[in-house]
Write a structure and sequence with these properties.
- Pfam families: Aminotran_1_2, GntR.
- The protein is an alpha/beta fold and about 450 residues long.
- The chain folds into three domains: about 1-95, Arc Repressor Mutant, subunit A, CATH 1.10.10.10; about 100-110 and about 355-460, Aspartate Aminotransferase, domain 1, CATH 3.90.1150; about 115-350, Aspartate Aminotransferase, domain 2, CATH 3.40.640.10.
- It is built from 13 helices and 16 strands.
- It has helices at about 15-25, 40-45, 50-65, 120-130, 145-160, 175-185, 200-210, 255-265, 325-330, 340-350, 355-380, 405-415, 445-460; strands at about 65-70, 75, 105, 170, 190-195, 215-220, 225, 235-240, 270-275, 300-305, 315-320, 385-390, 395-400, 420, 420, 435-440.
- The strands form four sheets. The protein has an eight-stranded mixed beta sheet with strand order 4-11-10-9-8-5-6-7. It has a four-stranded antiparallel beta sheet with strand order 12-13-16-15, with no helix packed on it. A two-stranded antiparallel sheet has the order 1-2.
């Protein structure tokens, strides 16, 4: 009756099913305005359910305004419920392939999750939950766990040689959230942001989505070309990756750092420094952050996604004092805070120097894989190639003179089970880097690297 078919063994109650069916009949126009519904007794008999079940369904419809009734009169369909012919729902969404579906997966920014000490981490999570005070199970504020902020300050001193006050550190749900909040925070100061070209396309979209005008500055093997900086009104910030430029891998030299800082001072703007993976440096010591030269002018963004595991979703920013109040307001009305237990577990991971040991072990492992990748390229790739940015991080760039890697090449590789990204994907002004490919290798064992290069070489032919 009325097109109602009940699933008697389903998890949805019978009354809820009746309500849903009748609501659908009303919005699709099969039950029209003013039409009388069957009595509860009649419908219960037709559907072989109790009268109370139908009564509950009618109560739900009445509470939401789908029906009207007066005491002693029949229940009728309310006015204005017909939705009409709804348009088809958007464009079809292409199914994303799992990383496991690729025979050769050169995705960038992927740490080796197989080497993370999961059992230790689970013990720390359990202990942090057991030790948490009752008030910590509530809202604890937008700054982040005090113990974690103190341990991050100590970690930065050990690993980067910089002194940071824990009060200037704010915990985030990764670097991406940090950039979303910073875009909101700085938008009132201007409408234009200076960005390296090429730069991470995902981070670029954060600023574009906020409505910033993008001012690209070209990058070479040493990072941002500061000679390309031009005067202009409306600049509020520069977004840079000076310790390991993404994607080309350059390290910004001291003279360019000074020139960039001088430019920021002259234009009364901030520099957003994204230090996403410089812990893994294979030639010489870790690079000192730009922040160490001008903490009142540089906003430092760090993350634990590349060091530990991406699902952790814990990052941090170091903010100049004048930005603290506005940051707290924005974070409070974004999502208030990070989950407490993960913060507490990470604080303990840092306090016991587990992170220091893990980074040392992974740096050695990634260094070996870097060498395996370079050796495989020498042995297996017949075409001429040059490497960019292999001194640090979890990826490198290969330049193939005379070749152009467009989206057709990418699609063909995916059909052959190869995940590969051309550098031009991350270019703002297209065309300057068509002959370069990005190869992520941190998550690949040496045998996987060699197999992947063999497959890639076939496509390069």
């Amino acid at each position: 009756m009325l097109g109602i078919e009940l699933q008697r063994q389903g998890e949805v109650s019978l009354s809820r099913q009746i309500y849903q069916c009748l609501r659908k009949q009303m919005t699709e126009g099969h039950l029209r305005s003013g039409e009388v519904l069957p009595s509860t007794r009649e419908l219960a008999k037709q559907l072989a359910v109790s009268r109370n079940t139908v009564y509950e369904a009618y109560e739900m419809l009445a509470a939401e305004g789908y029906t009207v009734s007066r005491q002693g009169s029949a229940t009728r369909v309310a006015d204005g419920l017909y939705l009409g012919n709804l348009p088809a729902a958007g464009h079809s969404v292409e199914k994303m392939r799992s990383v496991n579906e690729y025979t050769a997966n050169f995705r960038t920014g992927q740490p080796d999750l197989r080497r993370f000490p999961r059992h230790l981490w689970l013990r720390l999570l359990r202990k942090s939950a057991e030790d948490a005070l009752y008030e910590q199970w509530g809202y604890t504020g937008p700054d982040g766990l005090k113990a974690l902020r103190e341990e991050i300050a100590a970690w930065l001193f050990r690993s980067r040689g910089i002194t940071v006050c824990p009060q200037d550190i704010f915990i985030t749900a990764g670097a991406t959230q940090a950039l979303h909040l910073l875009a909101e925070l700085l938008y009132g100061r201007g409408r234009e942001i200076l960005v390296e070209d090429p730069c991470h396309s995902g981070m670029l979209r954060v600023f574009q989505g906020k409505g910033f005008r993008i001012r690209p500055v070209m990058v070479d093997r040493q990072g941002l070309q500061t000679k390309g900086l031009t005067e202009g009104n409306g600049l509020c910030a520069a977004y840079v990756t000076p310790s390991h430029q993404f994607p080309l891998g350059g390290i910004l030299p001291a003279s360019r750092r000074v020139e960039l800082l001088r430019y920021a001072l002259n234009n009364d703007m901030y520099i957003i420094e994204d230090d996403y993976d410089s812990e893994f440096r294979y030639i010489g010591p870790t690079i000192a952050p730009l922040y160490s030269m001008a903490p009142e002018r540089v906003i430092y963004v760090g993350t634990f996604s590349k060091i530990l595991f991406p699902a952790l979703r814990i990052g941090y920013v170091i903010l100049p004092r004048q930005l603290h109040l506005r940051w707290r307001y924005l974070r409070t009305y974004a999502d208030v805070q990070n989950p407490l237990f993960e913060q507490a577990a990470l604080a303990e991971f840092l306090r016991t120097r587990r992170l220091d040991r893990h980074v040392r072990q992974m740096r050695q492992l990634y260094g070996q894989r870097r060498q395996a990748l370079l050796q495989s390229l020498k042995e297996l790739v017949n075409k001429s190639w040059y490497v960019w940015g292999d001194a640090a991080g979890l990826h490198l760039v290969l330049e193939f003179p005379g070749m152009n890697f467009d989206q057709n090449f990418v699609r063909h590789c995916k059909k052959q089970g190869i995940y590969i990204t051309p550098v031009d994907v991350h270019s703002i002004q297209k065309g300057a880097h068509l002959n370069k490919l990005l190869l992520g290798y941190g998550h690949l064992a040496e045998a996987e690297i060699k197999k992947g290069i063999l497959l890639l070489n076939e496509q390069l032919k």
